[in-house]
């Protein structure tokens, strides 16, 4: 049924179908455990022969409904929700990689992902090579190694706002016979469906647009069910798992092998699960995702166009602008809108940018993006202040750069706020 539904219907009703007399609204099951009548009932669950909940570290009905809604939105074969976006990325990688393995990752990824890959995974013996995503496939392939196990990128890079060239990444992943993992956080499945462009696994920080109201940390890993784990390089999916009575994931679960293993092996062992309460709140957030993404995108485009003509602004970066060098890719992959995050430069540099932020009223200075409320940050004086000028440059952070996460307020009020701040703060 839901396979025929559009984004809006899935957002509102996907993942939970009440039976006669049951609550219309997805209930919050704030319970760690589940009652069974016989030892055999429970044994069948532990043997993975029957479906049901055992313990909320592994699954919970409220979390399961949220997972299923995200899964339907992306068009996957299954999903696992996690405590945060970082936890989702970690789970997605460790379900595949172990000591001695290598990952190819787009250099433009979110700072938290960059640190996780460059520092923490390195300590686990997993090596990551960062590549310039503007390179042609042949040049990216030159960075591959015999032990390369994953290709990783983001639909919309943060804070550079580059749109991933899915065609190039798909070509590289296919050539290497490795899974292509995409972080679709800033685009959301309402604007881009990475499985339709060659992704094999999708991760999200649901802390951002999915929740949308800045109440709940969360993440999710979604399996496209479209990668061949039996190609000889991913033995954990085909050989018996000694921690699960020798289950062979591909043999037992077919196209869902990846996501079943992520849950029953890794979520069980690492415990990086989403809390039922966060799933409950995030599910309410998802009910309006389709409306919010339309509004975020429309507001951001209108503001980007207004900024382009403003005398206090030296440059504007928004992938939805026709003047953007990303525009062709934006129309190819994000036909319904380019999301709500944009960046621009204030004339007068560091001090003018700082002063500008301090004059804002509708837009609030916070370390967050993708909220219903408009958020703004001056990376050079805040998130990136510890970096040297060279490191800031490599991260795409200039002294005049303002990152604006456009909310869903009335666009006229956001523009009026920017205008008064530019007039009192800018050059
Ligand atoms: C915020 C973010 C993350 C990390 O998510 P948390 O929920 O903060 O752990 C990962 N990827 C992207 C693109 C993000 O914006």
Automatic annotation (TrEMBL):
Cellular component terms (Gene Ontology): cytoplasm
UniProt cofactor(s): pyridoxal 5'-phosphate
Pfam families found in the cross-reference section: Cys_Met_Meta_PP
Keywords: Pyridoxal phosphate, Transferase
Positions carrying N6-(pyridoxal phosphate)lysine: 208
Molecular function as annotated in GO: cysteine synthase activity; O-acetylhomoserine aminocarboxypropyltransferase activity; pyridoxal phosphate binding
CDD domains: CGS_like (cd00614)
GO annotation terms (biological process): cysteine biosynthetic process from serine; L-homocysteine biosynthetic process; transsulfuration
InterPro entries: Cys/Met-Metab_PyrdxlP-dep_enz, OAc-hSer/O-AcSer_sulfhydrylase, PyrdxlP-dep_Trfase, PyrdxlP-dep_Trfase_major, PyrdxlP-dep_Trfase_small
Gene3D superfamilies on file: Aspartate Aminotransferase, domain 1 (3.90.1150.10), Type I PLP-dependent aspartate aminotransferase-like (Major domain) (3.40.640.10)
Family label: Belongs to the trans-sulfuration enzymes family.
Protein name: O-acetylhomoserine aminocarboxypropyltransferase
Source species taxonomy: Bacteria, Bacillati, Bacillota, Bacilli, Bacillales
């Amino acid at each position: 049924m839901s396979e025929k539904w559009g984004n809006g219907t899935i957002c509102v009703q996907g993942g939970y179908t009440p039976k006669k007399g049951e609550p219309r609204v997805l209930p919050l099951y704030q319970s760690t455990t589940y009652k069974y009548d016989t030892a055999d009932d429970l044994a069948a669950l532990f043997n993975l022969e029957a479906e049901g909940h055992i313990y909320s570290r592994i699954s919970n009905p409220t979390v399961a409904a949220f997972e299923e809604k995200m899964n339907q939105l992306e068009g996957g074969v299954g999903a696992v929700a996690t405590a945060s976006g970082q936890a989702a990325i970690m789970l997605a990688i460790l379900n595949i990689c172990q000591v001695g393995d290598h990952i190819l990752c787009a250099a433009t990824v979110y700072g938290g992902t960059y640190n996780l890959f460059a520092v923490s995974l390195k300590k686990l013996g997993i090596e990551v090579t960062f590549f310039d995503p503007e390179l042609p496939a042949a040049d990216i392939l030159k960075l591959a190694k015999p032990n390369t196990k994953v290709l990783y990128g983001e639909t919309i890079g943060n804070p550079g706002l580059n749109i991933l060239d899915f065609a190039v990444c798909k070509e590289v992943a296919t050539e290497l016979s490795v899974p292509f993992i995409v972080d679709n956080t800033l685009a959301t499945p309402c604007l881009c469906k990475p499985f339709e462009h060659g992704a094999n696994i999708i991760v999200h920080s649901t802390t951002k647009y999915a929740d949308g109201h800045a109440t709940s940390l969360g993440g999710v890993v979604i399996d496209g069910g479209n990668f061949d784990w039996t190609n000889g390089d991913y033995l954990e999916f085909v050989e018996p798992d000694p921690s699960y009575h020798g289950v062979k994931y591909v043999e037992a679960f077919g196209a869902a092998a990846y996501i079943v293993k992520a849950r029953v092996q890794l979520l069980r062992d690492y415990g990086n699960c989403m809390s039922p309460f966060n799933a409950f709140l995030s599910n309410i957030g998802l009910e309006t995702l389709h409306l919010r993404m339309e509004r975020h995108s429309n507001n951001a485009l209108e503001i980007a166009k207004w900024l382009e003509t403003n005398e206090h602004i030296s440059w504007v970066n928004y992938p939805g602008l026709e003047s953007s060098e990303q525009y062709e890719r934006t129309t190819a992959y994000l036909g319904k809108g380019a999301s709500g995050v944009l960046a621009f430069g204030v004339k007068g540099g560091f001090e003018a940018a700082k002063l500008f932020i301090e004059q804002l009223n509708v837009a609030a200075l916070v370390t967050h993006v993708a909220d219903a409320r408009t958020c703004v940050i001056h990376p050079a004086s805040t998130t990136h202040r510890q970096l040297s000028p060279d490191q800031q440059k490599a991260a795409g952070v200039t002294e005049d750069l303002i990152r604006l996460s456009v909310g869903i307020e009335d666009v006229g009020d956001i523009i009026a706020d920017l205008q008064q701040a530019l007039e009192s703060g800018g050059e």
